Amino acid sequence: MKVVFRADASRLIGTGHVMRCLTLASSLSSEGAECLFICREQTGNLIDFIRSKGFRVDALPETGGSSCQLDGTTHAHFLGCPQSQDARECLAILKTTSADWLIVDHYGLDSRWEEALLPCCKKLMVIDDLADRPHYCHALLDQTFGRPEHDYLGLVPPDCDLMCGAHFSLLRPEFSALRKRSLKRRANNRGLQKLLITMGGVDKDDATGRVLQSLKHTALPEYTEIEVVMGHQAPWLHSVQTLAKEMPWLTNVHVNVENMAELMTECDLAIGAAGATAWERCCMGLPCVMVVLADNQRLIASKLVQAGAALLSTIPADGDLEPLLEPTTFESEALKQMSLNAAGITDGQGLKRVLEILIKTQAP
C-alpha cells in the first residue's frame, strides 16, 4: 500500500498537523505501507525532521502568500498560495505515482483541491477538526472530543466513512503502552510535585515565557519541579531557557522530546495549550490547566472543562494564574478527580482504530 500525506508545519500553523500525520505514517510503515510526504517550505517547516524519520519528502517552494486570499478560502493564509496553485504543484509530483491513499491534513485546503487530486489516488482521506468547509473524500477523521458526525452533514459525500471523537485520537503507541502505569501512579497521588508546561511545538507568541513569569507570583509548593517542553523551531526558546534559570523552583527545559508519554507519566499537573497534546494528556490521565492560544482550540477547551477533565485559564499581559492555581488545585483529591475525568476521554487506541479502517477499506 502506498500512502501520500499532504501536510505543513510553520511558525504560523504550528507543528501539530505534521506530527499527527507522522504518527499515522509510522504505524502504516510498520504494517508494510510505503509513505511519503508533500510539504511546503514555509518558515518553521519540519521537512528535515520528517526525513530524519526515514520518509521521503517532496518540498513545495515557499511563496509570498499575497495572492492566497483570492480563492475565497477562509484559512487560505495557512497555505500561503491559492489552492489551484498548490493542486497543480502536487499533481506534478503525483502524476507518476498511484497512491492507494492520499491523506490531507490542512486547514487551507477543501473540496476544490481534493477533487483536483482525486485522479492521482484510489482513495482520499481528510484529517480535520474544524467542520467548517466542504470536503470531497472517502474518509474523514476529526479527533475532537464530543464531535458529532452530524456536524459534517452536507460537508462530505453521503458514503464518506466518518471517524469522529477523541476515541480516534492519533496518539503514538507509547501513550497506550504507559497509560496503565500513569493511571496507577495517579491513584496514589500525593499532590503537586512535578508540573509540566507544554504550549505547542512552535509557541510563536511566547506563551511559555508568559506562563513562567506568571508562576513566579503563584504559591506553588516549594518542592515543585517544573518541566518545560518546546520544539527546536520555537523562536523564544533561548529566552525561555534563560528564564528557567531564574525560577524559584528547579525548572528543566526539554527540546524536541522523544519521551513525552514518560514525561507526562511522571508529572502531576500540566499547564498546556488546548491543541492536539490535550488528547495525550487525557490518555495519561494528566490533570491540566488549559490555555487557549487559537480560535480553533476554544471548542476543545470548553468540552474538556465541561467534562471536568481540565481547568481553563488565560495568560494576561499583567497578572498571574493564581485564580486557578490556588492551593485547592494542588490537593491530591482534586488532582485525582480531574485525572479520572480526563482518562475517560480517550484510551489511546485511536491509532489502531484508524489503521483498521484504512487497511480494511483500501481500494483493491
The low-confidence parts are none
Order of helices and strands: EHEHEHHEHEEEHEHEHEHEHEHEHHH
Largest sheet: 7 strands, parallel
Number of strands: 13
Radius of gyration: 21 Å
Structural class: alpha/beta
> What is the overall number of helices?
14
Described by the principal axes of the CA atoms, the overall outline is: globular
Q: What is the domain tally?
A: 2
Q: Report the sheet-strand fraction.
A: 15-25%
Which percent range fits the helix content?
25-40%
**CATH topology heading of the largest domain:** Rossmann fold
Q: Numbering strands along the chain, what is their spatial order in the largest sheet?
A: 3-2-1-4-5-6-7
> What distance lies between the first and last C-alpha atoms, to the nearest angstrom?
10 Å
Note the quaternary state here: single chain
Output the CATH class name of the largest domain.
Answer: Alpha Beta
CATH architecture of the largest domain: 3-Layer(aba) Sandwich
Mean pLDDT: 90
What does this protein look like?
The protein is an alpha/beta fold and 364 residues long. Strand 12, helix 11 and strand 13 (311-313) form a beta-alpha-beta unit. Helix 4 (83-94) packs parallel to helix 5 (111-117), helix 6 packs parallel to helix 9 (260-266) and helix 7 runs parallel beside helix 8 (237-244). The protein folds into two domains: 2-171 and 348-361, Rossmann fold, CATH 3.40.50.11190; 173-343, Glycogen Phosphorylase B (Rossmann fold). It has helices at 16-30, 47-52, 76-79, 83-94, 111-117, 173-187, 207-215, 237-244, 260-266, 277-283, 298-306, 327-330, 332-343, 350-361, and strands at residues 2-7, 34-40, 56-60, 99-105, 121-127, 139-142, 161-164, 194-198, 225-230, 251-255, 269-273, 288-291, 311-313. The longest helix has 15 residues, at 16-30. Helix content is 35%, strand content 19%. The strands form two sheets. Strands 3-2-1-4-5-6-7 form a seven-stranded parallel β-sheet, with helices on both faces.
